[in-house]
Amino acid sequence: MEVYLIFVDAAQNSNKFWSAKVEQGNLTVEWGRVGYKSQQKVHSFGNAQQAVSKFHNLVAEKKMKGYRESQPQIDSTSDSLEIKRAIQLLEILRPYVAQRQFTNRNYLETLNQYLKIVPTPLGMKIDPSRIYRDVADVEHQLSLLNSLLETDFVLADNTTEESANNSKVISLKSIGKNFWRHL
Predict the structure, then answer these.
(1) For residue 45, how many C-alpha atoms fall within 13 Å in the half-sphere facing its CB?
(2) 29 in Cβ contact with 38 (< 8 Å)
(3) For helices 135-157 and 80-98, what crossing angle results, to 10°?
(4) What is the rounded CA–CA span in Å between residue 129 and residue 32?
(5) pLDDT by residue (tens digit) across 76-99?
(6) For the whole model, what pTM was predicted?
(7) Quick one: which H or E segment has residue 97?
(8) CA-CA distance, 123 to 79, in Å (whole number)?
(9) pLDDT, tens digit (0-9, with 9 covering 90-100), for 107-146
(10) CB of 4 closer than 8 Å to CB of 69
(11) Would you call 153 helix, strand, or coil by DSSP?
């Protein structure tokens, strides 16, 4: 049993994750800023039932604080609905970026929603005007996400084990190299 949660508020410079995993009688919790070295703590319990109970309590507590379930990376095996939702959010962001409305409340809320689906290292000081500098940046991100949907389609037609193991991955590291280099 494990979970990966994200909390993002670009206007308040918050971009953090929290994860937990139960293995036998241990609950391992990891947290930190997305893309940075994390902290970890292992809680040892007498049995798995106690660890699971603590897990559920901590997850509920984090969700009450605004954390949302996510994943540490997006790849072609990710839920295609999540990828499509991320694409929809980028389409909503595009006109705000084109008009350079980086302080607009709707832009910031949509950006936060997007970053909860696609956890992204944005540095220690988040500047919403530098995440997408222009429409070309949005287009590049759209092409990366669309390529995952295309890969998903190809894998459905070509079911060999070797091709299934060659899924495309957009992880924190690849986003850092391919897209966020300007930050």
Answers:
(1) 16
(2) no
(3) 160
(4) 23
(5) 667 888 899 999 999 999 999 999
(6) 0.79
(7) helix 80-98
(8) 27
(9) 999 999 999 999 889 889 999 999 999 999 999 999 999 9
(10) yes
(11) helix
